[in-house]
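LOG
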Amino acid sequence: MENQTVGLPRINEPAPNFEAVTTHGVKKLEDYRGRWLILFSHPADFTPVCTTEFMAFQKHKAQFDALNCELLGLSIDSVHSHNAWILNIKEKFGVEIEFPIIADLDMKVANAYGMIHPGAADTSAVRSTFFIDPEGMLRAMVYYPMSNGRSIDEFVRLLTALQTADENGVATPENWQPGDKVIVPPPSTTEEAKARLASDEYECADFYFCKKSL
């Protein structure tokens, strides 16, 4: 078949709108306004790597709920296949999947979000994950190959870091965890740089690299 992939969406631009059938009824991007949304795709139902990921998303659902974040899965399978897979996960692993899964048989959502990658497959979505903020802006994208599962712990960490940066006007260093010091924006004038280096509020390696506690 002719590949229909469109360009990837861009960070800090509006996330592509969608309206799709899911295991919880029809869902639209607008339904999530006012909350964070993690939209994630998987190659196919009834596959082992995807099963481990879905159980891990469910395991962390209470953490995502506490962070005002909804979960929404997707694959290019029917809603009947999704429902059967959810029941199978409950039966075989004792895990009840509580978040909806988009049935994207026409690949409209997958193509809008650039989930179909030539060379991986023409009819399967790679393991892509999109962080969408309460205003509908795309804030982060993470892609994994079909052969390797994602770290859901990292997604909790990244979401917490994004929210911390937004709320405090700061950045977070490598592998930042709640309670760690954050990075403050570089000063914009020479006087600000001198004042920062002389301040007891910051831990500075140099004028452009300062941390502080929240």
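LOG (cont.) second protein
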Amino acid sequence: MKNLDLSLYVISGQCFTPDRELLKVMEDALVGGATVIQLREKNMTVREMVEVGSKLQELARRYCATFIINDHVDVALAIDADGVHLGQDDLPVGEARAKLGAKKIIGLSTHSLEQALAAAALPLDYLGVGPVFTTPTKPEALPVGLELVANVSRRLTVPFVAIGGIDETNLEQVLDAGASNVAVIRAVVAAEDVVGAARRFKARIAAKKA
């Protein structure tokens, strides 16, 4: 298993902050302590993803963080991103691993215990578990609740990040359920003070691990 710190995983969400410059927002998240940043922009062209992703990869390296591309294995390869995050309907993990090689990071979204158990046998590095709560990022997705977080924590050894509707008001519940790592979008990138929001998340996650 790669040495991967998933503690605070911040995903881009320009739809929530159209008046802010994406690179500045993500750098502020890194300043605040994000250990992973992901480019997830469904409305970007491949060319735009390559251009923005190249700059985000440079930022991530400067802050000793990990940079992940959502969905697009080809973009991850083109810019030498640290890895890719896949959904259940994206390229199968085995095929992504064949394309990316052994050293790149692969994450996979899971929405049930059955999916998580099946994924644990695949050549990946971490799981996403969620959406824990209702989230406007995926309004059609039913929340899986804290019970799934607890079950995955108890039954699997593969690293995972809890994701979906997590903010400062419910973070403690997620950590108490067994999550050691949290992925957020709005709670950090749409915060008035992005650096401060990331720092508060990071401090509370670190305190729980201590």
